[in-house]
Amino acid sequence: MTRTGTETVGQRLASAGLGALTALVLLFLVAPILIIVPLSFSSGSFFYYPLPGFSLRWYRDFFTSSFWLPSVWNSLIVGSVATLSATVLGTLAALGIWRARFPGQALVLALLISPMVVPVIIIAVGVYFAFAPLGLTDGYSGLILAHTTLAVPFVVVTVLATLSGFDRTLIRAAESLGASPVTTFRRVMLPLILPGVLSGAVFAFAASFDEVVVALLMAGPGQRTLPRQMFAGINDNISLTITAAATMLIAISLVLMIAVGLLRRRSERLRQLDA
């Protein structure tokens, strides 16, 4: 077999084939996005190609409609409060699991991250029957608590991954100098694990902002989130305004992904400096 550089012809063909297959898979995954986004700028009133023209009418309708705009504010309110709660609880849980050694630790971790693997419909039904006797349905409180439950596992997993590279000798050094546990956490640990904590918060916000199943059961008419409103829009009155709403969700997701990437790079730089 002839060689070009350090690779054989077969290796080069295999590499090219793998690249082509990867490109096809990516195209398959992003095809719905490539279809929806242009439709949100259509001057027509139906879902069809080619576009009859370019227009921002659906975005104007989205930002001026009493049907869509309140749902955006509801999603931001619920997502922000749930993210704050999940970040605090998830970080504390991750620190407890990381520092402590006790029987059944793996079981506790499995229970903490179970909302990530259990079907959302099961969680939604369970939360509804648990919260209904307490009067927490059809309001912000129950919806925020339910979204916090769904978001905590993302924070736990992300913070634990960050703590896996943390040097425990830094804690012992701070304690030997007389620092209290709170001071040690605030001045030594938190600055180093902060990118991981913020990454977990980003994932938690995304999990809450995009969630629709729990919102269908827990949210009342005044707490409809954007995904639930989109679901209602599909069932009641199909309009191209829903493509504008979908494009907004796609844009928010892209911003969150970029934020996670930047935080990950910062975490890697901090690890290199620590090493």
Description of the molecule:
The protein is mainly alpha-helical and 275 residues long. It has a single domain, classed as MetI-like (MetI-like fold). The chain is 74% helix and 1% strand. It is built from eleven helices and two strands; from the N terminus they run ββααααααααααα. The chain has a two-stranded antiparallel ribbon with strand order 1-2. Helix 3 crosses helix 6, helix 6 packs across helix 8 (181-209) and helix 7 crosses helix 8 (181-209). The chain starts with a strand and ends with a helix. The mean pLDDT is 83.
Topology:
Layout: E1 3-4, E2 7-8, H1 9-39, H2 57-64, H3 69-99, H4 105-113, H5 120-131, H6 140-163, H7 169-176, H8 181-209, H9 213-218, H10 226-236, H11 241-274
Antiparallel strand pairs: 1-2
Low-confidence stretches: none
CATH topology: the name is MetI-like fold
Shape: globular
How many structural domains are formed by the residues?
Answer: 1
**In percent, how helical is the residue content?**
over 70%
Structural class: mainly alpha
Terminal Cα span: 44 Å
Rg computed from alpha carbons, rounded to a whole number of angstroms? 23 Å
Helix segment tally: 11
Fourth-level CATH superfamily: MetI-like
β-strand amount? under 5%
CATH architectural designation: Orthogonal Bundle
Sequence of secondary-structure elements: EEHHHHHHHHHHH
Mean pLDDT: 83
In the CATH scheme, the class would be: Mainly Alpha
**Biggest β-sheet description:** 2 strands, antiparallel
Counting DSSP E segments of at least 2 residues, the number of strands comes to: 2
